[in-house]
Amino acid sequence: MIEKAVILAAGSATRMQPQIEHYVKNEDELAAIRKGEKMAARFSKFPFLDYQLLNLVRSGLKKVNIVLKPEDDFFRKHYDMKGRVLFPEVEISYSFQEVADGTAHALYAAREFVGNERFLLLNGDNNYSANAIKMLMESPDGVSALVAYDIDGFNRWTKERLGTFAVIRVSGGRLIEIIEKPENPLEYRTSDFLYILGNGEVEVSEKVLTSMNLWCFTPDIVEACRVVPRHAPRKPGKPGEYELPDAVKILLENGREVLVYYACEDVLDLTRAEDIAIVSKQIRKNLVDSIEELNTRYSRLQ
To answer: What ranges make up the beta strands (E) of 45-143?
Structure first.
């Protein structure tokens, strides 16, 4: 059974900064978001990251490592002070990405935590269901795996930004290629079989599948992240970054298999300031059970 998860949370939250003060009034939260810890935004009283930790606990994870920038202190204080009471089922630790130069190097910062074990990797600014996490938890030993999201399961706001996501190509239930931010994602349609909970199979026909960065990795991804070349600049005037999809490409070129699991469900996405209002509505509507459980867990602090 997989016991470890790495949460990538060392970004600068550049796209969230404009007009953030219209959505966040608490000074501590606002200061954290200004530094890049956008998951400090609270929903029904709880920081966004609490919801993901709750789903990791529900899925049976035992150890969680959060990758931060060295100056980030909101979540270190939050979980150092409250984590053992809120989430006694997991051991929470931290790694630090000294320079914000891409997701591959963010993962590499957690290499000591990863050690020689398989682990899950996920974004801190998304919220994935326990069901999606459990699929990866049950994936066969010795292989990596990815959850592929059918765009038909997304809410309308997420669908509007499909061009910012990565679409994937699959053959025989295995990952073939990741296409980052394609000009027309609807051109990439898959007809193949994918895996589901319990390692069963499901046939899909003419489906657009995206990666929302929910992975299970074997520890050899760490070496791939170490040697991955810097990607070409995606924007004029900015250097390229060391990107996780390029590290995954190295795995594939070295003959490693990446199984693909199928999910047709929503993923909460906290990218821009206006997402706070959207995510707030989604949580109140769809995560009532999570709000109730977090209320119970926070009552232990009193």
So the answer is: 46-47, 63-68, 91-96, 119-123, 126-127
